[in-house]
Specification:
The complex is a heterodimer of chains A (238) and B (256). Chain A has 238 residues and is mainly alpha-helical. Helices cover 84% and strands 0% of the residues of chain A. The radius of gyration of chain A is 20 Å and the shape is elongated. Chain B has one domain: Four Helix Bundle (Hemerythrin (Met), subunit A) (Up-down Bundle), CATH 1.20.120. The chains are: A mainly alpha (238), B mainly alpha (256).
Chain lengths: 238, 256
């Protein structure tokens, strides 16, 4: 039997959602661990910008208490946005993305895996660090908890929306600024409900309604956006 | 009749050229009637005085800003689904008009807010979401023009437009959900809380804005078609006036 016939006789390679997901998440986490500097830069940026505000607006404790949750949320938004190029742009530039599309795994699987990995190296560290920054702003313990809970629910939505925008902007002129124009307006609902949760808690109200709305956003985004990202990647590789 | 007959750019180029002036005439007539009703017939508002007359431009502009985004997203969806060139060109042609109406809604709202609320701007839910809509339009225009290959820009912008549609219900229902400074709607399909002359003035102006939007989009889509098809024979056969129009859009009158 010649080689061509052997190849033809082999069963077609099989892919699955789960296998693609775990492969992509393992790959991107390994890449992030091999270049820990990039991840740390995002975290350092988050802490730095959050520390600039008290120097800029003055160290009045009442004022800091008032603006704390909003400032931390805006910093999280910017940090999530800054780490977006690592999601698809490098793989697009060296052709890896094209090979991934050709892989037998269904696209939503590995795309979701890449987004999950992005959240693990950008959203999760920010969520874990946020109580510390909140302490700098003199927030109460209950407010800190609401802030961390809102970030835990909201930052995955940022990763999903950001993934869609960065896939759309692959290969575009004016990359970074264009990405800001696309992504930041879409981040606004997350910002409103996320900062609202901590502010409601600080005002002595329940943060539950805001967290519920954030949760609803997260569910809708998780169900819908991976498919939009797949469509965007296909458009980019057309 | 074949529905896709007019989806051929040369056919639609001529059709749009024939239709656009009529829509502008209709827009002018309706706007004159609307402004007459708005400034002469409609009575002075009992609470706000004469200031309320900003409604005759503010509300139609706000309606158009949302409606045009929806229409634009629908053209984008059509271009992704049927892979028709003209649908994407229509989406591109609508975007600047939509952005203009969004800007007018925000600007006229600021001038209305100053005498009635005492401030040009508050971070009210409806105004914030309308501002986000303006940035969505800017993002759409920027993304559509960000690629060397215009077809790539068409498709990416179409997908962005579809994702951005989620903002529309947020704007529309924001006054009910958050109950902030911006007043609720005075007009609905069930009836109105306004004086009948005010309502007529507003509806006439809304129709005028609608006709203007269609006319402006048709003129703009003709420019987009010319730019895209510049190397084809039928455009070259249009003669030097069309070539000049490509070089300096808006300066030269296009052949009908």
């Amino acid at each position: 039997m010649n080689v061509a016939a052997q190849v033809a006789a082999m069963p077609p390679p099989e892919g699955s959602f789960g296998a693609g997901f775990s492969w992509a998440i393992a790959r991107d986490l390994t890449l992030a661990l091999r270049h820990p500097g990039e991840t740390l830069l995002v975290v350092a940026f988050f802490v730095l910008v959050a520390s600039l505000f008290p120097m800029g607006v003055g160290a009045d404790p009442q004022l800091l208490l008032r603006i704390g949750p909003g400032v931390i949320w805006v910093c999280a938004l910017l940090a999530a946005f800054l780490s977006l190029p690592s999601l698809f742009a490098a793989d697009y530039a060296d052709g890896t993305l094209e090979q991934m599309v050709l892989s037998p795994h269904p696209m939503p699987g590995w795309v979701s895996g890449k987004i999950a990995a992005h959240w693990l190296v950008s959203g999760l560290p920010l969520t874990v660090l946020s109580p510390l920054l909140g302490l700098q702003y003199g927030l109460e313990v209950a407010t800190l908890a609401a802030l961390a809970a809102a970030l835990a629910i909201g930052t995955p939505v940022l990763s999903l929306l950001g993934a869609a925008c960065s896939a759309l902007a692959l290969g575009a002129r004016g990359g970074g600024i264009l990405l800001a124009l696309l992504a930041l307006p879409l981040f606004v609902p997350v910002l409103i409900f996320g900062a609202g949760a901590a502010e409601a808690q600080a005002a002595g109200l329940s943060s539950a309604p805001h967290l519920s709305l954030l949760g609803a956003l997260a569910i809708v985004a998780t169900m819908g956006l991976p498919f939009a990202v797949c469509a965007a990647v296909r458009i980019a590789l057309d | 009749m074949n529905l896709f007959f007019f989806s051929s750019p040369p056919t639609f180029f001529r059709l749009a050229g024939a239709m656009a002036p009529w829509f502008f005439v209709l827009a002018a007539v309706l706007a004159a009637a609307g402004l007459y009703v708005g400034f002469v017939v409609a009575p002075t508002d009992a609470v706000q005085g004469e200031v309320y007359r900003i409604i005759f431009i503010h509300v139609p502009a706000a309606w158009m800003s949302m409606f045009l985004y929806f229409v634009m997203a629908c053209w984008g969806a059509a271009s992704l689904t049927f892979n028709t060139r003209l649908s994407a060109m229509m989406a591109r042609a609508i975007a600047p008009t939509g952005a203009m109406f969004t800007f007018i809604a925000l600007w006229s709202g600021a001038f209305w807010g100053r005498p009635t609320w005492g401030t040009y701007w508050v971070w009210d839910a409806r105004m914030t979401s309308e501002l986000v809509l303006l940035f969505l339009y800017f993002g759409f225009i920027a993304l559509a023009n960000a690629f060397e290959d215009p077809r790539r820009g068409d498709r990416a912008a179409a997908l962005l437009g579809i994702i951005g549609v989620v903002n529309l219900p947020i704007i529309y229902f924001s006054v009910q959900w958050w109950n902030t400074l911006h007043q609720g709607s005075s007009v609905s399909f069930k009836g109105t809380s306004m004086h009948i002359a005010m309502l007529w003035g507003m509806l006439l102006m809304a129709l005028a804005c609608w006709m203007y939007a269609i006319g402006a989009s048709l003129v703009r889509v003709r420019s987009v078609i010319l730019e895209r098809e510049a190397r084809t024979r039928w455009v070259r056969e249009l003669g030097p006036r069309a070539s000049a129009a490509i070089a300096a859009p808006g300066v030269t009158k296009l052949p009908g």
